[in-house]
Write a structure and sequence with these properties.
Distance between the termini: 54 Å
Largest sheet: none
Mean pLDDT: 94
Low-confidence stretches: none
Order of helices and strands: HHHHHHHHHHHHHH
Length: 255
Amino acid sequence: MADMRPLPSKVREAQSDAQELVCQAWETPNRKKRSDMASEALKLWPDCADAWSLLAQEARTPEEALETYQKAVAAGERALGAQAFKDDVGFFWGLLETRPYMRARASLAQALEDLDRYEEAIAHYRELLKLNPGDNQGIRYLLLHALIASDRNDEAWTFVNESPTEIMAMWLYPKALLAFRRDGRSSETDRLLREAIGRNRFVPDYLLGRKRTSRTLPDYVGIGDEDEAAVFVSEYALVWHKTPGAAEWLRMVAR
């Protein structure tokens, strides 16, 4: 692991106070007050990545959010130091001090996706998986979506088959969709779709518009429940319906 030299007590205290202020800000319902608290945290410690990330969440435009997440990632890199990226690759998430950086970089990649800058987003996702192969953040699901949304179907197909034991809707439905994109309707693509439906039977109703998702998505989902279906559809509805014939195929197999 990287050799972290002890910081002066005043610096450690400022960092701790800044992080505590951000934790309080996350629990504050008032948006302006949240932003003010994040700004105060940055006065205490300019490299508080979580404070920058909080400000990015309050950004007025996708472009502003992207710029602020870039600042969050840069702050996280400075806080960790260059040696951490040499010595700690492979078990980043196990080190508590890396987590603000990891959160910021994942959010940066999603902000790039929001602006259709898929190539850059995919590069960040892949680097995050190198830093933390255990993938406590669920980056693999974000990477799979970015690959499919940017029509990198062969790359996505290779990636999705690297984890044959996955059971989440976020994995099984995209795998079936990729097979359909490759081969059209067949006994094998039907089998993959039936397997996905067997794991979460709620997805077809949401994808086909029989049910509507809430504007507010749940923070946590259970495997096979309606919350999981709603989160999946919020990510994949556009991709699914842009795939020629995929909606009718789903309708036929689900019936």
